[in-house]
Amino acid sequence: MPLKKIITEIEQQHQVNFNYTEENVANFLLLPPKSSLSLEQKLQYLTRKTNLSFENLGNKFINIYKKNNDSKVICGYVFSNIDKKPIENANIHLNSITHITTDSNGYFEFEKGSKNIFFISHVGFMVKKITTANLDSQNCLKIILEPEITELEEIKTNPILASGISKNSDGSFEIKPKKFGILPGLIESDALQTMQQIPGVNSIDESVSSINVRGGTHDQNLFLWNGIRMFQTGHFFGLISVFNPNLAHTISIYKNGSSPFYGESVSSVVAISSTPETTEKNSFSAGINMINTDIYAKYNLSKKSYIEISGRKSITDFVETPTYKEYFNKVFQNTTITDFSQNQNINYKSDKEFDFYDATLKYVQKLGLKDQIILDLITIQDNLKVFQSAASYNINKSEDNILRQQNYGGNLSWKRNWNSLNTTKINIYNSSYELLADQKTTTGNQIVIQENTVANNGINLENNHTINSKFSLHDGYQFNEIGITNLEQVTNPDFYRKSKDVLRTHALILEGRYNDTISRVILNAGIRLNYIEKFKKYIPEPRIQFNYGFNKNLNLELLGELKSQNSQQIIDLQKDYFGIEKRRWIISNNTTIPIQRSKQISLSLFYKKNDWLLDIENFYKKVNGITTASQGFQNQLEFVRTTGDYEVLGTEFLIQKKMNQFLTWLSYTYNNNNYHFSNYEYPSFPNNFELIHTISWAGSYEKNNFKIALGTKWSSGRPKTSPDISKIDLSDPVLVYNKPNNTNLNIFSQVNLSSTYKWEMANGIQYKLGISIMNILNRKNEISEYYRISSLSSSIEDVETFSLQRTPNLSFRVSF
Question: Measured between alpha carbons, how far is 785 from 702 in angstroms, rounded to an integer?
């Protein structure tokens, strides 16, 4: 058998690589060694039969030489000191004219000549000088190249706003909860509370279930937990994030310029990963605060597998803390729950039960050196039961209300590293959401049931190819199926309506990434091509991220994207689901409920020097295909059904200074945000979510294990619509409004404080104590205002909703 064929068989059987020149192995014919022999025995056999030299390097690489030429050959391997992987296409400069390059294994060889010196270079690494005079040519060199510290890497900001938060070169914000410092009002690294500190991100009603990014509605954001799309993001109907803050390892937030691998969103992307980047030890922690208690545990089953679990449970069914009471008052004001008690003030009784929980499970298994399988499961649930009764004029009235909100999800992913340059990842996921309201009233013996369910599943395929040190290519395919059901059932009088819609989409994705550290240029450009089966419609979505460093202090960033979204949340009636969680998911029908499509571009300058940081970003954003039902109108547009768009032009500004352990920052956001409804009598007016001016300031101090932060937030009031009193007959009032959003609420202002202290005992157990106070000054901030005709007095009633009053919270945690 030819020696070359024997070598190929040995490579396949023993997972090694041979390095040789063709002339050295040509013209050899011999019997192959027995397959049962070890690698070393086979090499000894081939040495005897061929009189060649076989040099085994760690059972990975084997060099072949002619023995009579050993003294004239210089060979070696070039590795990176960052990840210890071979460096391909490294340049070996022998003289001013002659040079060779390394192969995919980092290997090179050349004949030893009169020159005693050669140089090794590669983009991103420091040049290395090698002297050959006294080298032993029978052994190959192992050469390690050190990374070159470039100006672009110095531009990356860390920290920004707080330790554990950084801004990446692709424009995204990255939060590392395990390294998180402290922010005003937060004693835990809650993902959705933390992101509201970023300029351009707000919550009009202080809810993590109503996060508005650059004027968009909450449902226009894409929330992913380990690849699973989450349709419920808040416990306690929006006051607490459903994502356990003690679990996440990386949170990535994109306001613009997101990768084409992210679809189904016309606003921001929030991607949460609980998979650690490196192997961690076994750990356990448990904690409690004035709302919930939680546990977390990670256990390594072997060197290649581990299991991780977490769980949180409210303590509200055991004790009503001051924090719980403030949350309850905030959530249930101006809902059918409190309306009942206001209308029935004689012998009124109420019995309420509220609880929530969430739990996660992760299983990771590595298979060999190239494969990894990860299973993620999550379950979330909120339950509310309220029984109310009243006796008025010898008439007994009662209501029995049940409201349940839950989200289940699962993701199974497989990743394979084919080699150092190519990887493939496949994941299959499912997410199920349900919102159920069940109301029983003695008046008229009526039962009302409302239900909104979502079933979302799909498969993602992603391939990553490293072409060279500067350029990489990423491609993939995604299939997504979403089915949404809405049910309404009433007895006495009888009414039943149920609708179910299903939409299937396919997406082809191509993305190229160019990173030149010497010229300080980063360019990520790609396209996502969606195909919607039901509408036979193609939607292309190009994305771009461009980053250029003028010098080590000044950086320019350009981001742009086109995106689309097929599902959205609407409000049929403000009293749906007791007025507490009144939004329901629906699917676009491509006519009365269009596919939402957005375009956005932003340009920013970033400057950092001597612990000063300055970031100025200007942006333009337009979203087409919105419906009036999705915008939460409580004026003359509440029952109008039409479609249109909103357009935002804005500026975001951040200045930050770090002085030893003290960090302070000031941010300002300007938004000019307007609706356009061409078929309505007022075709243009301010957006419901417009906050023209927002200013935030914070100062934090961290030393050793003590942290404290104080901050304030100030914003101009959101738009509201006032009634036109001159056109209303007060003896028989019917609401007549001025132009939509013709005025604004009062200024919103709030001061928050938080502090934590951590200590460790001799046995290795860590303890952490935290305290926070929201709205220290107890300011009564109005967050919404609308008008209605009172059923009791037949007069116009001004209904106001307020933010949290002064709200303390206390936490304690044990870890080991």
Answer: 40
| Dihedral sign computed on CA atoms, order 184, 186, 189, 192 | negative
Between CA 349 and CA 339 the distance in angstroms is 13
* pTM of the predicted structure, to 2 decimals: 0.80
Helix (H, G, I), strand (E, B) or coil at 750: strand
How many CB atoms neighbour CB 342 within 10 A? 10
**Whole-Å CA distances, 644 to 212, 623, 682, 738:** 18, 9, 12, 20
**Which element (helix H / strand E) includes 575?**
none
What value does the mean pLDDT of the chain take?
90
Task: Give all strands (DSSP E) within 181-304, no chain letters.
Answer: 201-203, 211-213, 222-225, 228-229, 234-235, 240-241, 250-254, 269-273, 283-288, 292-302
Residue range 65-115, pLDDT digits in tens? 876 544 567 888 899 987 788 898 888 887 766 778 888 888 888 777 656
Take residue 420 and report the two structure tokens written for it: 């150092």
Q: Are 656 and 663 in contact (CB under 8 A)?
A: yes
Tokens read off for 195: 């992101």
* Contact in structure between 283 and 299 (CB atoms under 8 Å): no
- Least Cα distance to 782 among 236, 206, 239, 201 occurs for 206
- CB-based contact 93:99 (threshold 8 Å): yes
Residue pLDDT, tens place only, 414-431 = 999 998 899 999 999 999
Distance, in Å, from the CA atom of 511 to the CA atom of 497, rounded to the nearest integer, reads 45
> 637 near 628, Cβ under 8 Å?
yes
* pLDDT of amino acid 706: 95
Rounded to an integer, what is the distance from CA 424 to the centroid of its chain?
21
Mean pLDDT of 625-647: 95
- Taking only the tens place, the pLDDT of each residue in 448-461 is 999 999 999 999 99
Q: What is the pLDDT of residue 96?
A: 66
Q: Is the peptide bond before 493 cis (omega within 30 degrees of 0)?
A: yes
In the chain, helix, strand, coil percent, each to 5? Answer: 10, 55, 35
